[in-house]
Amino acid sequence: MRTTQLVYHSYSDVELTAYLKEGDRAAFEEIYERYWKKLYNETFKRLRNMELVEEVVQDVFSNLWMKKEKKNIDNIYPYLLGAIRYQVYILYKKGKTPPHFEAPLDHLLLSTLQADSLFKAKELKWCISIWLTMQPVKRAEIFRMKYLDDRSTKEISEILHISQKTVQNQLLHAFSDLRAFLNRIMVFLYLL
């Protein structure tokens, strides 16, 4: 490792972001080295396609470098995660990749007996999978463990080494947010 890289390696994210904004290539390279693997893994969880994942991660970093002066970034890693999630959402929306979603959540389906039912199982799974990509990583993981892996809150708390109350709170927040998200989608579909 060159001396310059060693120096940048010790900089905080805030310092690196400030240098990046000034056009410092070494700061950008340090940010890339620090976070590309995490972003790759987060993207792969959502797309399960190595070529698309590489393209998305590369696009996010390219965009970061090209528009560095215009970006108002307080915290680089959450910013990059948000950019990744947005790119994944765009791919889903364009239909370039199906959302990765393994198991049904039948208990969330609207009754097919209801005349005003707007969702079928396939569309609901797709909406939920998009919603999951927008959730904080830990909340999405808890949601998947509970409703896809069919684990109890106690099992989840033991696996993740967090309290059972934290698991329950995350699930409450998840359901509240999911319900609001699905309501917005239904209103949108109704207006179409």
CATH architecture of the largest domain: Orthogonal Bundle
H/E element order? HHHHHHHHH
The tally of structural domains comes to: 2
Structural class: mainly alpha
Shape: globular
Enumerate how many helices there are, as a single number.
Answer: 9
- Contiguous runs where pLDDT drops below 50 for at least 5 residues: 101-118
Helix fraction?
over 70%
Tell me the fraction of residues in β-strands, as a range: under 5%
CATH class membership of the largest domain? Mainly Alpha
Give the overall average pLDDT.
Answer: 80
- Strand count: 0
Straight-line N-to-C gap: 57 Å
Features:
single chain, Rna Polymerase Sigma Factor, Chain: A, sigma factor activity, globular, mainly alpha, 192 residues, RNA_pol_sigma70_r4_t2, Arc Repressor Mutant, subunit A
Descriptive overview:
By secondary structure, the chain is mainly α. It has 2 domains: 3-94, Rna Polymerase Sigma Factor, Chain: A (Orthogonal Bundle); 106-191, Winged helix-like DNA-binding domain superfamily/Winged helix DNA-binding domain (Arc Repressor Mutant, subunit A, Orthogonal Bundle). 70% of the residues lie in helices and 0% in strands. The protein has 9 helices and no strands. It has helices at residues 3-9, 13-21, 25-47, 50-66, 76-94, 121-133, 137-147, 153-160, 164-191. Helix 2 (13-21) crosses helix 3 and helix 7 packs across helix 9 (164-191). The radius of gyration is 20 Å and the shape is globular. It comes from Pedobacter cryoconitis.
